[in-house]
Amino acid sequence: MTLPRTTPNLANPAVPKARIYAMLDTDGDGIASRHDYFARIERARLATGRTDDDPLVLAAHATGERAWAAMDANGDGIMTYDEYAAWVDAEKFDTVCQYALGALFDLADTDRLGVLDRPKFTLLRQALGNPAHNADAVSDALDTDRDGRVHRQEYLAAIRAYVTGDHSPMGRALY
């Protein structure tokens, strides 16, 4: 079976969904597959040195399963860009995505305080497929209280704003 390739317009910074979709397509073949989606969890697990049976890894997989099931509504194991763009919105972020992203954040939060210092935040970003070159700018944009750390709620709120097209400090710093 030939899988449908998609080519989101990454040159246009006004298309956050395209940029996020490109990160979900971890192997760069133009299709975000179930394998791609769970590869991000595995990369975060490896980057944070956690074992497969770590409760936070199990939680990331459980929330990932729920997120993937919602995104791949027809159950074919792939999600085209058009499917993703039509699916994701504020309500989906609030009911699905924030939990999956929060579970990934928690993998890097070794002291379980709900905050990541710059090195841990950069490690998480890179494990999830974000470029390293702008990690400092993103950290600075999200560190609203200037304590040198990114708070979980600030991180999730910035991603939500970026995905939904609202004012996002992350979006400005990324692109």
Weakly predicted, low-confidence segments: 1-6
- Helix/strand-derived category reads mainly alpha
How many helices? The count is: 9
Radius of gyration: 15 Å
Topology of helices and strands:
Elements: H1 16-24, E1 32-33, H2 34-48, H3 55-71, E2 78-79, H4 81-87, H5 90-108, E3 115-117, H6 118-127, H7 135-142, E4 149-151, H8 152-164, H9 169-174
Antiparallel strand pairs: 1-2, 3-4
Helix pairs in contact: 2-3, 3-5, 5-6, 5-8
Structure keywords:
175 residues; mainly alpha; Recoverin, domain 1; two-stranded antiparallel ribbon; two-stranded antiparallel sheet; 4 strands; 6% strand; globular; disordered N terminus
Gist of the model:
Helix content is 59%, strand content 6%.
Summarize the structure in words.
This protein has helices spanning about 15-25, 35-50, 55-70, 80-85, 90-110, 120-125, 135-140, 150-165, 170-175, and strands at about 30-35, 80, 115, 150. The protein is mainly α. The chain has one domain (about 15-175): EF-hand (Recoverin, domain 1, Orthogonal Bundle), CATH 1.10.238.10. It has a two-stranded antiparallel sheet. The chain has a two-stranded antiparallel sheet with strand order 3-4.
